[in-house]
C-alpha cells in the first residue's frame, strides 16, 4: 500500500496532511508520483490541487521542484513536507506561519533536532529549481542557515519519518501509549 494511504489517527496520511494545511494555509498542492490513483482514493482530494511528477524516479527533489512550479503566483511562502510525516500538528504549522513574514526559512525544532515541515519564502523557489537532479533540497537550506528562524515546538511529529513498516508500527504504538 502507498504511504499516502496508510492511516494515522483514523485518517489516511495524505487526508490528514491536506486537512492540517487547509486549516492553516491559503492553498494546498500535492505532488503525485508513481501512483496517480491516490487522488481518487482519499477523502479530501477536492481540498487540494494535484500535480503529477513524471520524473518521480529521480527522487524527492524532483517532486519538490514539480510542486514549486505549481505554486500560485501570489504566494508569499511555501511549506513543504513529505507525506511520510503524518504526525505533525496544526499548531506547529501555525507556529511556523507566525514567523513567516520577513523570514527566508522557518524550521521547527524539538530538543535541538530539526524536522518537517519546512517553510520558506517564495524568493527561494529559483534556488530550489536550479538544483541539479543529484542534489538535495537541504543544500539550499544550508546555504541560508544564517537567515533561518528555528521555532521550538513540542511536536514529536516533526521528527517521525515513516519510511518503513517498523517506523509505521512505532508510530502506531506511540499513539496508543498517549491515548
Main attributes of the structure:
179 residues, alpha/beta, Spore Coat Polysaccharide Biosynthesis Protein SpsA, Chain A, five-stranded mixed beta sheet, two-stranded antiparallel sheet, 6 helices, 32% helix, globular
The domain tally reads 1
Radius of gyration: 16 Å
CATH class annotation: Alpha Beta
Main sheet characteristics: 5 strands, mixed
The H-level CATH homologous superfamily, spelled out, is: Spore Coat Polysaccharide Biosynthesis Protein SpsA, Chain A
The class by helix and strand makeup works out as: alpha/beta
Strand content: 15-25%
Sketch the topology as an H/E string, one letter per element. Answer: EEHEEHEHEEEHHEH
Number of helices: 6
Range of helix content = 25-40%
- What would the CATH topology be? Spore Coat Polysaccharide Biosynthesis Protein SpsA, Chain A
